[in-house]
Known about the structure:
The complex is a heterotrimer of chains A (500), B (142) and C (406). Chain A has 500 residues and is of the alpha/beta class. Chain A has helices at 23-27, 54-58, 81-93, 180-193, 228-233, 260-266, 286-299, 316-324, 345-350, 355-368, 386-395, 404-410, 432-435, 440-465, 487-493; strands at residues 9-13, 33-36, 41-44, 64-68, 98-99, 114-116, 137-139, 147-148, 154-155, 162-164, 168-170, 197-198, 215-219, 236-240, 251-253, 274-276, 306-311, 330-334, 343-344, 376-380, 399-402, 480-482, 496-497. Chain A has two domains: 9-95, Alpha-Beta Plaits (2-Layer Sandwich), CATH 3.30.70; 137-497, TIM Barrel. Chain A contains 15 helices and 23 strands. In chain A, the strands form eight sheets. Chain A has an eight-stranded parallel sheet. In chain A, strands 6-22-23 form a three-stranded mixed sheet. A two-stranded antiparallel ribbon of chain A has the order 1-4. The longest helix of chain A has 26 residues, at 440-465. The radius of gyration of chain A is 24 Å and the shape is globular. Chain B has 142 residues and is an alpha+beta fold. The termini of chain B are close together. Helix content of chain C is 23%, strand content 28%. Chain C is built from eleven helices and 24 strands. In chain C, strands 3-2-1-7-17 form a five-stranded parallel sheet. In chain C, strands 20-21-24-23-22 form a five-stranded antiparallel sheet. Chain C is globular, with a radius of gyration of 22 Å. The mean pLDDT of chain C is 94. The chains are: A alpha/beta (500), B alpha+beta (142), C alpha/beta (406). Chains in contact: A-B, B-C.
Amino acid sequence: MINYINPQYEVERDADRCIKCRVCERQCANLVHLYNEEADKMISYSEKCVCCHRCVSLCPTRALKIVKSNNTFKENANWSDQAMREIYIQAESGGVLLSSMGNPQPFPVYWDKMLINASQVTNPSIDPLREPMETKVYLGKKAEETVRDENGNLVCNTPVQLELSTPIMFSAMSYGSISYNAHASLARAAKELKIYYNTGEGGLHEDFYEFGANTIVQVASGRFGVYKDYLEAGAAIEIKMGQGAKPGIGGHLPGEKIVGDVSKTRMIPKGTDAISPAPHHDIYSIEDLRQLVYSLKEATAYKKPVIVKIAAVHNVAAIASGIARSGADIIAIDGFRGGTGAAPTRIRNEVGIPIELALASVDQRLREEGIRNEVSLVVGGSIRNSGDIVKAIALGADAVYIASGALIAMGCHLCRSCHTGKCNWGIATQIPELVKRLNPDVASRRLVNLISAWTHEIKEMMGGMGINSIEALRGNRLMLRGIGLTDKELKILGIKHAGE
Amino acid sequence: MKRVYADEKWCLGCKLCEYNCAFANTNQPDMAVALKNTEIVPRIKVEETGKINFAVSCRHCKNPICIQSCITGALYKENGVVMMDKNKCVNCLTCVLVCPYGAIVEDSGGSVFKCELCIKNICKEPACVKGCPNKALLFEER
Amino acid sequence: MKYIIIGNSTAAVGAVEGIRSIDKKGDIDLFSSEEYHTYSRPLISYLLCGKTDMEKMKYRPDDFYVKNNVKTHFSLPVEKIDALNKTIYAGGETFSYDKLMVACGSRPFIPPAEGLSDINYYTFGSLNDALKLQDNINKESKVLIVGAGLIGLKCAEGIFGKVKSITIVDMTDRVLSSVLDKEASDIVKEHLKKYDFNFYLSRFVKKYSPNTATLDDDTVIPFDVLIIAVGVRPNIELVKDAAGKTERGIWVDERGETSLKDVYAAGDCVMSYDITTDSERILALLPNAYSGGYNAGVNMAGGNEKNDCCMPMNSIGFMGLHIITAGSLVGQKIIDYNGGYKKLVVKDGCLNGFILVGNVERAGIYTRLIREKIPLISLDFDKLKIHPCLASFNENERQRILGEEV
């Protein structure tokens, strides 16, 4: 069959700068670059390029750049290049289109339509370099009332909590979808930062049990790697009901990736497909969910908070209300721009709702029902910077989950080719020669740097608003104003328009 | 003393160290200009076995057999670093014969050369370590 | 502590540095029959061809003796050692010592031949030899060199282009017979022939007369300059006359001490234990002289160093062709022609010797295998055969040698 698909990217090599060192050739797992001895020239096979920029970053003379191909189909506002390309792929393969990482479509990003307040004159701002600024948060059910014993002393009736030095956690990415070294980097960074990372649904590699105090262990529909020691190893347990990138469907890690330690950690035979069903087959109601929540609590002697993670979907507020009543301590909501190691393109691009709207409506609903203190709210799905975090907290979140951002810090260039398993950055791959490209000494340092930098920025913004504790920002929607939003959007977000 | 240590666990075999080494020792400001159309002869060499790679350069031994064997006195030690006086070298390659690491290289210009930890060039710190993308080379005290 | 060093070349410098590595204060008196600051003897051929000069030939910097607090006695040959009274005699004076180093080297060997005593000839072992030769050659000189060993060929290279012709005669059937096998030797010979060197191999001079030499097959070779370079003999007399044990060379133990108490010796005048042939032999090589001198120096100052890894090894180049050899050629031979000539010799499961001609890159890794007697079974020898590399070592060994301070 003739291949109708044209290369999307072209490698441009500056012949004056290329010294034929062949670093690009050695670093490209997609075999884009090849040295041709006869011509004494580096040749680029652009059709294989995924635009991951590994070669660009490592080229010592900066001789390379990747450009968007200007090879064009006849212009058509309706039948875009992308639409046509997808049809060509499917007409050739007969299969479901697969994609990786978050939804790249031009849907509105509400973070970018909200602005943060600052103090002037009457309510002085605070200089975080001179005055203490608290970013520590506790996640979990909060006590209903203050209780004192007969002597008038406070009775400590706070349910078990997760303590975070800053309101940021690394969200679930399984060992299998990302590499051993990526996990090692996240674990080490979480420990140093006094926050948490999340195992995802791949079990916990035996080497990482030592990071248990900074680990959230996940229980998902496939139950991979779940056993007593696993549940006890983590600081909290997360039940994954859904994922923002692919709400309503399960997961499928192909057998080729179930190799060596991945198979051991998932507790499934080598080479077998790891299929996570779309639903949990034992959960068809809030009552069923409550059973699992309490089973897990019972199994871990009520010492660990239980998180229930859902994708942001249309009736998320009602679902969250149910979860809050199921006994869960924390609700994690994953917006439709959240990342994935592999998802059907149509699901990723068309299903779910923006996290900003989901968060606002869930927080509002829980308040209205008087159960906001029953649970903490953690939101994720494309948190891109500290500004997004401040806005999320002001909308009502207790903390945020980041994953794409963490991967980018480690080197990911969002080429969105995770599903090929040939990640040139050593992140989304299990090929040993590629995995070793990610030295956790380097990657964990980059993660720590990023979160430290964001924490500084959060403090700056808090100080500007005259707020010295992140707890005082939570749900403080007066600190936000919308810009370019409709009345309906403003109403859902619960914020006023700029100028109001 | 701080030395360059290679860790094969993290070496990618990208050979950037070889190019950074060659470049640093040209003392030129731009690698593309300095190394264009030249066959580099670096002082560090990336070795390969199967899928394992590691870079080898002078270990700056405590009792360097190359200095003991040098027939001219061109090789000498300064603050623990094994240095090379190009001017004195007659290219007899006795050092190549004795160096247990194969870390001394023959130059086309009629002398040998070796890693001097970038002390003499404009880099001032080992260029191989500085440019290693995966910390497979470390410059440290052990 | 009073140290006396007889000699001013490699082993003597080694001894000074060895002593000073431990004893910074003791008196060191150094006697030399020559008038020069310490110079590198192998460089005399490079001096002739202009690759070095008198200044650059200095084996150590000008301030070497001052920095190491050494009292020098140049142009003062030592006549006698009295080991009982721990004194030496030189220039009619007596000097006493606590520890003595004899590093008096070797001298050219002149085989007896008819007519030789009546004519003028040159040898090639010292700076004075080289300077004298330099003064007596010119563009018209026809040079005859007797001996196609290291010294003869190096001398030939040194004067190449400065004389009209160079003829080389050797008794053996090949050049460099002491270090090369026939095959490698032929490669070197063919290479040299390109530069118009004339060879008469398996021949000897039976009769010399002024300006001609007659070979055993009655070939008559005319010459203006005759250089005798058939080998050297160790200077053992000082120790022998003091009743120290000598054979072909001065006998020393592995610490470098002679049979005379507190008398040490090193360099071209001693016999060393060759680990590749399990025998005591003279290893007149610069690296061996330095380490022998250095270790003996350390021991003289109260340390404890052993010369336990001596072996023959040579690195030489002739007209751009490099040759590196080490160890012994006794054992199973593995020959490989990857970019030049290569012969590896295996004995008792270890590398025991090698010859490399042409491509000598990273040869020291082979030398290491011999020196450390590393069992080849622990290595990827197939890989190693092609290129000397550390990648052929096993992982633990690699990590040890590359991950630790050495």
